Amino acid sequence: MKYFICAGEASGDLHASNLIKWLKKIDNKAEISFLGGDLMAQSAGCKPLIHYRQMAYMGFSEVIRHLPEVFGNLRYARKMIDITRPDALILVDYPSFNLKLAAYANGKDIPVYYFISPKVWAWKEYRVKQIRRYVKRVFCILPFEVGFYRNRHNYEATYVGNPSAEEVTEQIKLFGSKTEFTKSISIDNGTKIIALVPGSRKGEIKNNLPVMLNAVKLAASRHGEKTTHIVTAAPGIDDDFYSQFISDDTILLRDRTLELMHFSDAALVTSGTATLECALAGTPQVVCYRANGKKLSYKIMEKILKVPFVSLPNLIADSRIIPEMLVHQCTPELVSEQLLPLLSDTEQRMAQLDGYRRMALALGTNNCFETTARAIISDLK
Predict the structure, then answer these.
(1) Which domain holds residue 148?
(2) Most exposed among 20, 185, 296, 341, judged by the fewest C-beta atoms under 10 Å?
(3) Any idea of its EC number (predicted)?
């Protein structure tokens, strides 16, 4: 069968590449056309029709500046759907673009499948109307999404497992010992390590890293044992950007975020997928999201967001496992108060680790790529 797949950013490229491997493994006559990246190209054995680097415009102003490119990409994608006449269109997140493709394919009687649902449970819930109208099946990677679709929109989505659960487990198996890790970064093995994961965009880092740095200094001054903090560097952001925030003796670690979180005693993490990875690595954490820090912003965010929590571990467990210090609550004093108990064998630390176990049970052990590939192929037969 012929499959047309669209992933518009780096994370989608990674997940779609694994899905392609399973489609080809199960369907030995699979023909793949795709919009995506280099990882998808490796799995598919052909080049992308459009590389995601030509598609990944983030934020309203950036999209407006690149409207001609956006519309050009959409026209070309529609043209290639007409030329290839796929048996299925498979979309990976990236809803602003992908839902337009879904409408077009649906009009051509091509079944549409969504792997990795857009976060409509958090914002832009109106998109569910388009999903219900154009998408035959949605394959979710977060278990609570099934209840959201069913209870609020009378739409049956399918939970297939979570890619991070399997990926983190496999990566941790490759790590050495903590002694080897501390030796590689030249710190004493007995030192308590606090990981600082301030986000992947410059705006996030600018807002959150100074708060994190001051919070760990306060916590270290009140904690009896020796501590050190290590900052993770985001891909695509050079060391010079971080130098305006960190001192010369602060360790900046690149390409080893999961390893750092795994061997740390506690972490301060900006909300996102990193909070889930930190939980899967078994490290207690405090979620920090400063934004512009105004109470009004917090009230607006409360109105916009449709969920009781912002961090994935809390959402998956449906309870407050991790403290979330958001906007005006994200101050060095308040963050340090939440961090300090996590550095010792306290009730707070034990409660987080117990919450992580409940979260892991909710995620399950399914291979989401194999499960999704089998479901799509079975549905098409």
Answers:
(1) 2-161+366-380
(2) 296
(3) 2.4.1.182
Q: Same domain for 10 and 77? A: yes
Compute the distance between CA of residue 80 and CA of residue 74 in angstroms, rounded to an integer: 10
Judge whether residue 300 has pLDDT over 50.
no
The Cα 112–Cα 288 span in angstroms is: 37
Angle at 17 between CA 11 and CA 20, to 5 degrees: 140
Task: Tokens 């278990």: give the residue.
Answer: 143
Q: Given the structure tokens 């490796």, which residue do they identify?
A: 42
Split into its structural domains, the chain has a count of 2
Q: Are residues 203 and 218 in the same domain?
A: yes
Q: Is residue 104 located within the same domain as residue 197?
A: no
Same domain, 54 and 178: no
Taking only the tens place, the pLDDT of each residue in 195-217 is 999 988 888 899 999 999 999 99
Distance CA 360, CA 166 (A): 11
Instruction: Tell me the C-alpha distance between 204 and 206, whole Å.
Output: 5
Q: Model pTM? A: 0.84
Are residues 124 and 218 part of one domain? no
